[in-house]
Each structure stands twice: as structure tokens, then as C-alpha cells.
Amino acid sequence: MRIAFFSETFLPKVDGIVHTLCHLLDHLPSRGHHAILFAPAGAPRRYAQSRIHPMPALPCPIYPELKLAAPWADVLPTLEQFRPDLIHVLNPLTIGWVGLRAAEQLALPAVASYHTDIAGFAANWGFGYLGRPIWAALRWLHNRAALNLCPSRIAKQALERHGIERVRIWGRGVDSERFHPRHRSEAFRRRMGGTEAGPLFLYVGRLSHEKRIDLLHAVLTAMPEARLAIVGDGPARPHLEALFANSPARFMGYLRGDELAHAYASADYFLFPSPHETLGNVVLEAMASGLPVVVPNSGGVLEHVEHLRTGLLFTAHKPHSLVAAVQRLVVDKALAERLAASGRAHARQQSWANVHDQLIADYRVLLPTPTTLPRAA
Predict the structure, then answer these.
(1) Most buried in the list 11, 87, 135, 266, measured by CB within 10 Å?
(2) Could you give the CA distance from residue 272 to residue 263 in angstroms, rounded to a whole number?
(3) Helix extents (H) in the chain
């Protein structure tokens, strides 16, 4: 197959969408498929074996990390040269609209995937009144597609509740060899601020206000012997650095590859307070690394975290509930070890290869003429 992707975000920006898309672009050539990616200008010109077509885009005034492309951009000459079998738009907005319109013009099947709870984020920022128009816009975009994908059952229920049709789950995987307890390093633990006197907590992800990283301050206040390593970057970093200025928290910036694997394995507990995730790739990475995880009782993280089986849940947005869950784990070592083991066992079953092979099978159903899928290795 030949697949044209349209994404609102790509490298050098790092987020869950980019993480998933990179894994997919790595995987497709191994199954004999070809891809082209339309992404905001500033991305590399190639990734893996795929060409990247830059689209002029300007930062969104209220969220500069998001770049908005001209929705009237003409991509037909490039698409006609590439000859795609289908078009897949990720988190469709302006670039996604260009892709959906091109699919209609070329009479190609279109796939749209939902990755971000924009309405939930807006509510968290104090713009809850935008929820209805946001869902109306999403419904208008997604219902132009022949197939809509989302990462979890929670997200699927939300989409269907808001009138989005033809929804299937496109799950997420994890490399359980790259993220493995054997990568624990005392030297890296010290680099993150860890000591022998108390536990080392870890957060990994974008530093943005909707992630509710501020709740972790209450944990450090309640447990002064603990330390916190914050891995990632984003628009909320200056605010968070000021908030945690007198706390034993260390900001590590973005980490990749072996350093990220060492960071996970060298911590003691993974705390992820974000209440509006459609899944949360980093939670799976922490589980694969052998960390007991604490997450809110909302959003797509519930796809993989079951209370008292693969992690602990706390009441979303409630710092006292988060503190109580963390203290329970720190005091009950047997519980922490059991959750770490069962979380690791669960993560090992979530391979990227299986996830993407199922996606390829879903693509095939949309093709006008069935094609023979290359046999999986």
C-alpha cells in the first residue's frame, strides 16, 4: 500500500502523536508499504524511508506550539506523483482538513485519528464553554472520513457520545526491551537528584498546564524526604520551575533513547497526574521499565492501569488523593513490588508490531480492490 499522512505536528516537536507516528513510519517499510508525510515546515525532509512534504504554517496565537497551515494549500500535484491508496490524517485541524479535502478530490478513502482531548484541555484552561463548538468542529471533520481511529475505549466512548461515526480503536504499544528494569543506574539516579534517604518520583511528558504537574508539589510538601525528576519540556516550564523553586525537584529537559530508558528504570515510582489523556504512552513505558504507577481515575490511562492490579488510581484534580495514593505505595513495599511486576507483565503484551499490523489490516478493508498483505515477519 501507499499511504499519505497529514499531521498537525511532527519532529522536532515531541509529543504522543509524533511518538506514535514515528513508530508507524518505522514499521511500514518492514511490511512492504510506502508512506509520505505532510507536516508543518521545519520538520526534517525525511524520516526512516518516508519523504516529508513541508507545509507553511504559523504558530497558533493562544498555543504557539501548535502550527496552523493555510487550509487552501494545494497538495494535489505531490499526491498525484506519489499515487497513494489512501490518506490518513492525524488529529485533523488545518493540515488535516487539507488531507480530507484532497481525499475527496482524488476519490480516495480517508482515515482520521483522534489523539488529543481538546475539549477537556479547554475546560482545564477555564474555557469550558468552548466544549460544544470544539466537538462540533471535530464531528464535522471526522465524519468526512471512512474510518475514525482512537487509542482507547474511553476515547471511543467519548467520540461516539458526541456523534462521531465509524470509530475503531488503534491502540498503542511499547518496546519492552528498550524500556526494561535492567537499565537501572545508580549514577543516573544521582543525576536525577535521587538519594538513599528517600524515594525518587518520576514524571515524563510535555510540560503544559493541562497535564496538572503542579499537583506533584503537594506530594513533595507531604514527603520532604522524597525527590522528583521531571523529564520533558513545554510552555509551562517557566511556571513550574517557579512553583518548584524551593522543592527537591529537578528538571531534566527532553531525554531520548538510552537516557530516557535509564531515567525510567532508575526512579522508584512513576507519577502521572494528567486527567485528560486519550491514552498516555509514557505510562506504558514506565510500566515496562518496572515502575509502579500512580495515575488519575479518568481518561485513556485507564486502558492499561487497573486499580490495585497494574497501578494505583487517585481522584483526578485532587492533590490530597494523589498524596494518599503515593504514601500508600511508599509505605507498602509489597504492594509496590506486586504492582510493578504486574504492570511490567501487562506492558510486555503491548507490542508496536501487533498494534501497527492491526492498523494495516484496517487500512486494507477500505481499499476498493483488496490487496495481498505482505506476510508479517
Answers:
(1) 87
(2) 15
(3) 16-27, 76-82, 94-105, 118-124, 131-142, 153-161, 186-191, 216-222, 237-243, 257-266, 281-288, 319-331, 333-348, 352-366
CB 310 within 8 A of CB 303: no
SS3 category, 197? coil
Contact assessment for residue 170 and residue 362, using Cβ atoms and an 8 Å cutoff = yes
Grid cell of 74 as nine digits: 494545494
pTM assigned to the model: 0.87
Structural domains of the chain ordered from first start: 2-173+351-366 (3.40.50.2000), 181-348 (3.40.50.2000)
Q: Which of 96, 85, 70 is nearest to 149 (CA)?
A: 96
Convert the pLDDT of each residue in 317-363 to its tens digit.
Answer: 999 999 999 999 999 999 999 999 999 999 999 999 999 999 999 99
Contact 141, 92 (CB under 8 A): yes
List, for residues 190-223, the tens digit of each pLDDT value.
999 999 889 999 999 999 898 999 999 999 999 9
Alpha-carbon span 187 to 47, nearest angstrom:
33
